[in-house]
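Kindly review this record before class:
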Amino acid sequence: MNKFRRGFTLTELAVTAVIALIVILAIGVTLAGSIQGWQTAYGRAYSDVAVESYSATRAFDGVIRKAVRQAFSVSDSELTVKYYSSYLSTFPDRYAHFYLAGRELMLEHGNIDASGNKTESGTAIVCSNVDSCVFKHDVGRSIEMIVTLNDPQKGQSATIVSSAVLHNP
């Protein structure tokens, strides 16, 4: 027998292979779980309800921030505001009207002439899958919109609360 052995015994190689296999399996399970978590988070962030809620918030904030403080009317499910089309306007020459039509939040917008008559208008769907929509004006210069969206086919729902301040005098 040689005093100096070269290489590894079969037992040492088998133990090393088993340890490597256990480490590789643990890494695989961890990666699989993180991929599933990522897909769940991505699905929630970019779901129909999330996109619709973002759309509703952007439309509401964009209109309300331009609105005139003295020229708006709020009921439970409807909101009408008047605003200036540009800084050169001498009177509020534009209007926006949010209302609920079935399960869709609608935005009617258009021009107003000097006598206050609506001259041109267009209508757009702000978001769909709306269960309820409430507008509130309690005190001060802010208006609040509370929209509940629900997509029963995909099992998604969300309640969005957005508040914006009327900036123009």
Q: What stands out?
A: The mean pLDDT is 87. The longest helix spans residues 10-45. The beta strands are 67-74, 78-83, 94-101, 104-112, 118-127, 130-136, 142-151, 156-165. The helical segments are 10-45, 48-64.
